[in-house]
Specification:
Helices cover about 40% and strands about 15% of the residues.
Length: about 280
C-alpha cells in the first residue's frame, strides 16, 4: 500500500505538438476530451487526495517519433522484420541467423490476402528500411539519451508522470493506417525503459474509452500499479462501451434530459438514475 498524498505527480498533457516543426505532421494533436479527462485526474489528486501535481512540458517529447525511428534503425538493435521472420519454433531471434523478410513484398502479399501479418506490422517493418544519414541518426540517438536521462532524473523516489495513452479516443477500423504514428505516445517509454500502467477513465461523449498512462521510475512498477488502482477505484474502472450504446440504441432519446451516468460495481456496469427523467 502507498499513501497517495505522499506521491509526487507530474502532469504532461501532450508532446508539445506543432504541425510546423517538420515532425508534427505525422502525429495528431491531443483531443480536447483526452486532455479534460487527464485534468479531472489532476483535480481529484489535488482536491480529494491532497497530493501535489506539477504541470510541465518537455520539449524533447515532441521528437518521440524520430527518436523511436532512430533506435530501430540503430545497427545494434535487431530489425523488426527479423521478428516477423521468427515463428513458434525459433522465436528467440537473437539465437538464430534467420533471413530478414522483405516487408515491401509482404505489403504486396497483404493486398491479395496472402500475408500472415497485420497491415500495421508490415508498415512498421517498412519504416525501419527508411535510410537515415549518420549525422541525423547520431543526433536523434543523442536526443533519446538526453530525454532518458531527464525522465530518470524527474522520476526519482515516489514520483510518477501522467501522460496521454493516445492523442485520440478509439478510432474507426483502419483509421490507424492514416494516423499510425500516434503510437509514439506509448513507444517512447519503451525507448526510455521505464514501467507504465494504463488506467481507464470512463467514456467520452460518444461512448468511447478514455485513459491515461502512469509512468514510473526504474523498477517502480509497484508504484504505477498502486496509483492505477487508486484512480481505477475513483473513476469507476473499465466501463463497457456497449452498455452506453445500448441505452441510446434501444431507449427513446426523449427519455433523457441528459446523458445517463455510468457507475461501476464490482460485478458489472450499471446505469444509475437512467429512468429518473421519465
Amino acid at each position: 500500500n502507498i499513501d497517495i498524498q505522499k506521491v509526487k505527480f507530474i502532469s504532461i498533457e501532450d508532446d508539445g505538438w506543432n504541425q510546423f516543426d517538420g515532425w508534427g505532421v505525422f502525429t495528431s494533436p491531443v483531443d480536447r476530451e483526452v486532455k479534460l479527462a487527464q485534468r479531472r485526474v489532476v483535480n481529484y489528486l489535488e482536491s480529494t487526495c491532497g497530493a501535489k501535481v506539477e504541470r510541465r512540458e518537455i520539449t524533447l517529447l515532441r521528437y518521440s517519433l524520430p527518436i523511436w525511428m532512430a533506435h530501430i534503425n540503430n545497427n545494434g538493435m535487431p530489425k523488426f522484420s527479423l521478428y516477423c521472420s521468427a515463428n513458434k519454433d525459433n522465436s528467440d531471434v537473437s539465437a538464430y541467423d534467420l533471413p530478414v523478410k522483405n516487408m515491401y513484398l509482404e505489403m504486396l502479399k497483404k493486398l491479395i490476402g496472402k500475408s500472415d501479418h497485420s497491415i500495421y506490422v508490415i508498415i512498421t517493418g517498412m519504416l525501419e528500411r527508411i535510410p537515415m544519414g549518420k549525422a541525423s541518426l547520431e543526433q536523434l540517438l543523442a536526443m533519446g539519451t538526453e530525454l532518458r536521462d531527464l525522465i530518470h532524473e524527474l522520476l526519482v523516489g515516489d514520483t510518477v508522470l501522467l501522460y496521454p495513452s493516445h492523442p485520440m479516443t478509439a478510432p474507426r477500423h483502419y483509421m490507424p493506417c492514416f494516423t499510425g504514428f500516434n503510437f509514439a505516445y506509448t513507444a517512447i517509454w519503451n525507448i526510455i525503459g521505464v514501467p507504465v500502467t494504463q488506467v481507464p477513465l470512463g467514456l467520452d461523449k460518444n461512448g468511447l474509452p478514455l485513459g491515461v498512462q502512469i509512468v514510473g521510475g526504474l523498477n517502480k512498477d509497484r508504484l504505477t500499479i498502486a496509483v492505477a488502482r487508486e484512480l481505477e477505484e475513483a473513476f469507476g474502472g473499465w466501463v463497457d462501451p456497449e452498455e452506453k450504446y445500448k441505452v441510446y440504441k434501444y431507449e427513446p432519446m426523449r427519455v433523457f434530459n441528459q446523458s445517463p451516468k455510468l457507475t461501476n460495481s464490482s460485478s458489472q456496469t450499471n446505469l444509475s438514475n437512467a429512468q429518473s427523467s421519465r
